[in-house]
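It is worth pausing here to work through a concrete case rather than discussing structure prediction in the abstract. The textbook approach is simple: state the sequence, then state the predicted structure, then interpret. We follow exactly that order.
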Amino acid sequence: MREGEVAELAAKGESDRLEFKQSVRQLKEACQAVCAMLNTRGGHVLVGVKNNGTLLGDDVTDNTQSDIADALGKIQPAHLVTVELVALGNGKSVVVLVVPPGTGDVRAFEGRAYRRIGATNQVMTPGQAMALQSQRQDPAQRWEAQPAVGFGLGDLDDAEIVRTVDEMVRRGRGSDPGTRNAEDLLLGLNVLVGTTPSNAAVVLFAREGASFGLSYPQCRLKLARFRGVTEAEFEDNRQFSGNLFRLLLQAQDFLRQHLPIAGRVIPGVIERADEPIYPPEATREALANAFCHPLSANIR
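Step two, the predicted structure:
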């Protein structure tokens, strides 16, 4: 995110999906908000922002980043929370904690489970935590099975849906449905709620240029090539948004642009054989695993 994007986000004001903390000294309270959002609909926690949405920033050192990582590590069971540092013109930075919607087990910070009600974080009673845990174990109640608010069938890429089914059939992962009508295919994939796409449908098949807003932080991909062996300087730094299939292709393309190409001379053959230093099949597998298991998705 850039300063303008953070300012636009902060201008919306605090809500069930957005919280401000003025300083990294409020890191404990920030993690309580992260925990609460993991137990509800996800969102963003902005550290270095006043209650009225004014961007102040803070001094963020290597020690500060270590403190942030340690504090987030107190949220159990562990879950991916993206940390972004957005530099401001005053030399300070806003810490953006990107919280995906909660799935699976109920999360607790320092032994306490929190939930988000309006713009507040409330400690859950044991009974409330048990009820939420039970609800999340019901497949019909999982986040990916819920209807995608603000999205319709027209927001999905019909060609991507058909390609996915064709590939599924080709690989023997399912029988041919006998149709290539996108809505019928979505029904067969169980990613429609009535006539509304589920969250899973949006993550997998959203059209190019779809506006994901705050609801789908997992549909943003950051790619970087660093100069040297530290993270102090970039040679290339890009950010993409889109459905997961498109993000996978963009990640593969980024690797093709930056990984070395090895060459070898074959006796009796005029042309030199040029091949990527790492087999494309191996890098694709690594990327696919990172997308499927985001807790280990910080590939270097």
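Step three, interpretation. The chain is about 30% helix and 20% strand. Residues 264 and 270 are 11 Å apart (CA to CA).
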